Amino acid sequence: MDMAGFYIPKDGKLGEDAFFVNQKKQTLGIADGVGGWSRRGIDAGKYARELMSNSVISLCDESGGTVNPKRVLNKAYANTKAKGSSTACIITLKGRWLYAANVGDSGFMVFRDKQCVYKSPIQQHGFNHPYQLGNSKKSDTPVCADEIKVQVENGDVIVAGSDGLFDNMYPHEIVGILGLVEGYAFPEQLAWMIAESASSNSHDKDLYSPFAKANEEAGFHYLGGKIDDITVVVGQIGESMK
Ligand SMILES: [Mn+2]
């Protein structure tokens, strides 16, 4: 799997999302620090960034091909001391299977033959209130993580992201972007194109976005995209290495 990520913070600074890709361990991770902390003067982006850098450190203990995403997340969580809280999604490829540990509303989709064939479920306590890891008593812990196993095929494209992606782009819009590229596209290019498109949607005040749809389903009225940090990581499944 060839991987690359692209990040568009909403404030033009660091924002509150963080991600990593580790080509050697065939693993990627996404975290979305929860914005509500800023009212208390806490930058939740710090928590998200520390959680992701600790995940990269935890990965060193895993031998290639036997990465256990939940174990990685557990160790990273135990070592993360910053104040704040964050969603987290760690995904690894072993042979023809993706394994993921997911807490909250970041996640991933799998595209095959111009169709979305899989979308990871989100975990939330209530509308717009995702599960989140953190050091406060109210936080969730990695025990809550959804453990996901999905079979993939050669040529599949994995699109992982924070809610800033999924709240602004429907799967068919991502399919549209994947279809713009003839033949092989670099994952850097796809991640950039998808993130730019999500960012443009996020500023469209008249858009019936996935976020607007979710509001409607929860009994609220909202129209437009959702301005948020946008992280996109693309993984292209190639020939099996084993
Ligand atoms: Mn977000």
TrEMBL record:
One of its GO terms (molecular function) is metal ion binding. Residues 1-237 form the PPM-type phosphatase domain. Coiled coil: none annotated. Its cofactor is Mn(2+); Mg(2+). Its EC number is 3.1.3.16. InterPro entries: PPM-type-like_dom_sf (IPR036457), PPM-type_phosphatase-like_dom (IPR001932), PPTC7 (IPR039123). Keywords: Hydrolase, Magnesium, Manganese, Metal-binding, Protein phosphatase. It catalyses: O-phospho-L-seryl-[protein] + H2O = L-seryl-[protein] + phosphate; O-phospho-L-threonyl-[protein] + H2O = L-threonyl-[protein] + phosphate. Belongs to the PP2C family. This is Protein phosphatase. It comes from Cephalotus follicularis.
